[in-house]
Structure formats: structure tokens, C-alpha cells
Design a protein that fits this description.
The complex is a heterodimer of chains A (about 110) and B (about 110). Chain A is built from no helices and 11 strands. Chain A has about 110 residues and is mainly beta. In chain A, strands 2, 4, 5, 6, 9, 10 and 11 form a 7-stranded mixed β-sheet that branches. The N and C termini of chain A lie far apart (about 35 Å). With about 110 residues, chain B is an all-beta fold. Chain B contains no helices and 11 strands. In chain B, the strands form 2 sheets. In chain B, strands 2, 4, 5, 9, 10 and 11 form a 6-stranded mixed β-sheet that branches. The radius of gyration of chain B is 14 Å and the shape is globular. Classes of the chains: A mainly beta (about 110), B mainly beta (about 110). At the A-B interface, strand 5, strand 9 and strand 10 of A face strand 4, strand 5 and strand 9 of B.
């Protein structure tokens, strides 16, 4: 089936650790996005990529890093510099940045323990 | 600053009722507008995508309209069912946002049997 796969579904991080969230798509989409969702705050954009080997910061990029070495993969690393990482993380993709429909994965819930 | 607003934040209706969810946005220069559904703890499911040149889109019991000049979109749900209970999100792709979707806060819908 075509779609976006995020893993793991649940992730626990100790203080001071870096963790990496996986996002893979087999839709042949150029654009990929990472959003963070907190209760009462809606979705906020962390990073996005319009093409392989290129990405831009979103509204809340501090404490996060990404890479886009392959078209189908856009992993997100939550670094120890992110002071409040507990949240629901959503990955999305679209054929391009303009007129196309965005599709989302099922999300990863990250909790700091 | 470009913003998307959804009113009401929550809505409770009896089963069988027709209902309208509202989305407003601050700039008419858009590529498209997309409506999503989100169930608790899940990712976003795309419901309808309306391009800037279109006035409405329909899928089953759902009908979405777009009025760019007034900065408004509505999602009409006919003959609501308990299975429609979810949070509905509106997202706008503005021209000058480089393909980033700007989300509203969502409307939490509860359909009572």
C-alpha cells in the first residue's frame, strides 16, 4: 500500500538523550514535513524539505535536526537541546509545495522520562 | 502574519443532524485549502482538498466550499453519525509560505446517538 510510515509509535527519552524519529514514504513525493502537536496549540511546523539534500527550518526548529539523503526518507532527531520534547510528532508529504494534497503518517508520541 | 481560525472549538450534535464547520483565513492569496479529520491519538486523514480556482468539493456526505474573497471555507456534514466524532482541522497553503500548511486549531465534534 502507498503511504507514509512513522516509527516507532511510542518513544521514551531520558533527559539528555538524543532520539531519532523515522518517517518513510512510498508515494514518490518531493515535499516532506515534520509537525509537532501539543494540546491546545494545534500543529506547528518544525522542518520541511522540498527536494532531496535540501531542507528549511519551520517555526519551531530549535532543538531539532533533520536530514534528507533519500527522497523517501526524512528522519527527525530530537536533541538534548530541546527543553520540552514531550509531544505528538507528525510527518507529512506532498507531491510538491504548491497545488497538491498533503498526506500524514500515524504519528509518534514522544515522552521524556 | 497569516492565520487560520476555526470556530467553534467544540460542537456537540444529535445523530442525524446536518452541521457546518467554519474556517477563516487572513489572506486570499492561496494555492489551496485542505480539510482533515483526526481521531484521538492518531494521525490526520485528508478529507477534501479545494484548489484556489474551485468553489467547492464533495465526497460522500461531506461538502467543502471556498470563498477566497471573504477568506472563508465551510465543511458541511450531512446526516451526521456517531462515527463522525473526531477533531476536524482546516489547513491553508498560502502563496508566500513556500508550501507550508498553516493549520487552524480544529473543531472537536461529538455526535450523540
Amino acid at each position: 500500500d502507498g503511504g507514509i510510515t512513522q516509527s516507532p509509535k511510542y518513544l521514551f527519552r531520558k533527559e539528555g538523550q538524543n532520539v531519532t524519529l523515522s518517517c518513510e514514504q512510498n508515494l514518490n513525493h518531493d515535499a516532506m514535513y515534520w509537525y509537532r502537536q501539543d494540546p491546545g496549540q494545534g500543529l506547528r511546523l518544525i522542518y520541511y524539505s522540498q527536494i532531496v539534500n535540501d531542507f528549511q527550518k519551520g517555526d519551531i526548529a530549535e532543538g531539532y535536526s533533520v536530514s534528507r539523503e533519500k527522497k523517501e526518507s526524512f528522519p527527525l532527531t530530537v536533541t538534548s537541546a530541546q527543553k520540552n520534547p514531550t509531544a505528538f510528532y507528525l510527518c507529512a508529504s506532498g507531491r510538491d509545495r504548491m497545488n497538491t494534497e498533503a498526506f500524514f503518517g500515524q504519528g509518534t508520541r514522544l515522552t521524556v522520562v | 502574519k497569516q492565520e487560520v481560525t476555526q470556530i467553534p472549538a467544540a460542537l456537540s450534535v444529535p445523530e442525524g443532524e446536518n452541521l457546518v464547520l467554519n474556517c477563516s483565513f487572513t489572506d486570499s492569496a492561496i494555492y489551496n485549502l485542505q480539510w482533515f479529520r483526526q481521531d484521538p491519538g492518531k494521525g490526520l486523514t485528508s478529507l477534501l482538498l479545494i484548489q484556489s480556482s474551485q468553489r467547492e468539493q464533495t465526497s460522500g456526505r461531506l461538502n467543502a466550499s471556498l470563498d477566497k474573497s471573504s477568506g472563508r471555507s465551510t465543511l458541511y456534514i450531512a446526516a451526521s453519525q456517531p462515527g463522525d466524532s473526531a477533531t476536524y482541522l482546516c489547513a491553508v497553503n498560502f502563496y508566500n509560505q513556500g508550501g507550508k500548511l498553516i493549520f487552524g486549531q480544529g473543531t472537536e465534534l461529538s455526535v450523540k446517538p
